[in-house]
Amino acid sequence: MTAPPEDEPVVHLLWINAGLSCDGDSVALTAATQPSIEEILLGGLPGLPRLDMHWPFLASEGGPDGGPDSFIEWFHRADRGELDPFMLVVEGSIPDESIKDEGYWCSFGNDPETGEPITTGEWLDRLAPKATVIIAAGTCSAYGGIHAMAGNPTGAMGVPDYLGWDWTSKAGLPIVCVPGCPVQPDNLSETILYLLYQVTGQTPAIPLDDNLRPAWLFGETVHEGCDRAGYYEQGQFTTEYGSPRCLVKVGCWGPVVKCNVPKRGWINGIGGCPNVGGICIACTMPGFPDRFMPFMDEPAGAKVSTLASGLYGDLIRTLRGITQRAVDSEPEWRRRRRATH
Ligand code: SF4
Ligand code: SF4
Ligand code: SF4
Question: How many CB atoms lie within 10 A of CB 238?
């Protein structure tokens, strides 16, 4: 791979992983293969602009916090308007700093003048007006996720809840949410790739659904891409793990969840929750996790559909059995025939 020429314009990517976050989406991105992050960074795909990525996960810059050689200085430069264009990736949910008595919920580097921590929310306030596009990576950043469960003390929320669902960047782009807990690696790398092409004028506007997800990645349900869907259709459900049958009775939410993981796999096309025996817990959905708990119980709405599928499936399997026996044998005439004369 050859990086684009030095004189081509640079797009900066600033990554804040200091929301309420476990860094799972950063880890996930290292596993992307279509495209890989190496291909994006080294310009291994046609038409890519030079990308300068400021990602805590792999950054090598040292230097004292706030000094000219420090990693965090890139963020101060963006804040001073010295980086343009830049894409802002946010990982983790944003706590509500106004609802605590003292201290702070989460921060990212220090203010060089005061030495005080800069909260994650303040970074969003500073950088959002200057960013060309904001990507919410992972469900926490998109919709609040696990940290925003009912009863949490932090008031955690996703980036669209923090900035407003109709927020648009100075370039007119809405927030782009790539949910998943963690995000499916290629979904994120492909979205970054799309937006790099878009900010350099090479693609039309990214198509998003009502929850700001890339429409082509989240347009179908888990169930529609699941390896086990044939068992569901035939009314064959398992009530224990270790079976190849449909997992809906042990808690799979796949029929109503928008996610392409069973089709795309997890790494290099391999894996994909129900395909490999794990129930779908709906981690890409705005209501995750509260609306889908307790996780190991059969979804309430599944009782009627599995009853209908069970009745229909019994009949279909019987009829299919008859057809299968007929087609699972050679035609009569493919035998040595005894001479008749
Ligand atoms: Fe971690 Fe999941 Fe939140 Fe990503 S969405 S930061 S993987 S808890
Ligand atoms: Fe649908 Fe889940 Fe059953 Fe797969 S395991 S067929 S996604 S209900
Ligand atoms: Fe999350 Fe379900 Fe997709 Fe797995 S299949 S990644 S649990 S939404």
Answer: 17
